[in-house]
Amino acid sequence: MSVVAPTFGTLVARAGQIVRVEATAVSSRWDAGPQGQVIHTYFQFKVLKTFKGPEQDTITLRQLGGQVGATGMLIPDMPSFDVGSTYILFIAQNGRAFCPLVGVLHGSYRVVTDEATGTERIVRANGEPLQSVAGVIAPIESSSGPAGSVASALRKDDFENAIIQELDHPAQQ
């Protein structure tokens, strides 16, 4: 899949919702589509913090593709979420677009804990540490695991403060 990577300002501006969430469930099912039946995957989350958009206790994201029984519909480079993990998501057109995240993988950031310090840090959808908000525009390459030390990743609090600052004082697009 080819995606134009957004800048941090564009990521924040295009999102209808920005939330920190914990993944609670995932399921796939057949749905009616314009050309017939298609598979969608539904990710359910508990909302931990809302930065932009309506306040909700839970949210369900729908994206194209998934596995129902022996039939699968694989869409390369679509985001996935592990139940029990925490993410910061930049959501747009949930339920209307093939992927509910701004910039597909660029709209999902996992919160991980640096085991050495206990500090919560931000990694990109492929497991690479996000070292600054300017790094959201970098291409997301497939990765077999984290590239670089989690200790080099941006602290969760700094990422969230940057989101709040961008919402308060948007950069010129």
Major sheet details: 6 strands, antiparallel
Oligomeric status? single chain
- Along the chain, the helix and strand elements come as HEEEEEEEEH
Spatial shape: globular
As laid out across the biggest beta sheet, the strand order is 3-2-1-6-7-8
Low-confidence stretches: none
Count of helical stretches: 2
* CATH class label: Mainly Beta
Short description:
With 173 residues, the protein is mostly beta strands.
Structure report:
The longest helix has 13 residues, at 156-168. The strands form two sheets. The chain has a six-stranded antiparallel sheet with strand order 3-2-1-6-7-8. It has 173 residues and is mainly beta. The two termini are 25 Å apart. Helix content is 12%, strand content 36%. The chain has helices at residues 8-14, 156-168; strands at 17-33, 36-52, 58-64, 66-68, 71-73, 86-91, 108-113, 120-123. It has one domain: OB fold (Dihydrolipoamide Acetyltransferase, E2P) (Beta Barrel).
